Amino acid sequence: MKEERLLNVFGMVDDKYIVNAAPESLLKKREKKSHVARKRRRYQIKMLRFVAVLIIALMSVWFFQTPAGAAVVERVQEQVTRMIEILFPPKEITITPEGLTEEVAHSAQGKEPEADTPGFAIYVDTEQYTMTEEEGIFYIRPIEATDSLLPAIEMVIIELPDVLPETAAKEAREQMEGDWETITEIVRSTEPPRLYYEAYAGFAWDSAIEEHYFCKNGQQGTYHIILRYFMEATEGAGMRFRAMLNTFTVIAPQDAIDLP
Question: Residue 218: enclosing H or E segment and its boundaries?
Fold first, then answer.
């Protein structure tokens, strides 16, 4: 039944997302990590979950029997399925393109998780970039067209369902050998946890650059993320892409984050 599905969705939501989506007036960001503060935080999370479930339950019981009520429930259901919009509200991100600090508004976009497959969320600077999906691959590109004679400027997000990050990184790097002037060794970072390497076509102002990142998809697969730009755009598009990349979050089928 529709009301059961709505309740199940809220029941699966990880507590950390409820905290992030809650207004600051209800959950204070800078509470001291004392025993009392932790108890209060757990209580607030429980109350948020209880209120959300109660509202949906009441709507389902009270309105679902009427045509108007069914339409309302259907609308709520549509809102719940847009989990990314609910759990990742818009926010401003501090970036320093070309050495100038900016507070830039970003909105979360991505792929909704399904019953047995993960999804992801990433904050995008929608004033300057747009994200599209083409045959299961996601692209973030400048809204304003760039010179077609210059190397591509884009971020590419590819899911490799049955390949672990270590294998994906090694195979991708091997395929690029011989085509690029310089390829760095694969490096493992812990904050955030992922593997990455960089490739340079040269060191002229218009030489292409690629940054390759690999993180677990929450199961036995990998998200392979590629940043493409050229040398002169390092402090512009390159900086903005990395700011967006640092917000990339895997959403496992039941909202359980599982990074490498």
Answer: none
Of residues 109 and 252, more confidence is placed in 109
Pair 260, 216: CB distance under 8 Å: yes
Q: Would you say residue 18 has pLDDT above 60?
A: no
HSE toward the beta carbon, residue 253, CA cutoff 13 A: 6
Six-digit token pair at 127? Answer: 């004033």
Location of structure tokens 């690629």: 210
- Domain 87-251 = CATH 3.40.1000.10: yes
> Which residues, in sequence order, are CB contacts of 179 under 8 Å at separation 6+?
none
Looking at per-residue pLDDT, the higher value among 254 and 201 belongs to 201
Average pLDDT value for residue range 221-245: 96
The domain segmentation of the chain, as residue ranges, is: 2-81, 87-251
**What's the confidence (pLDDT) of residue 35?**
55
The CA-CA-CA angle for residues 218, 219, 220, to 5°, reads 130
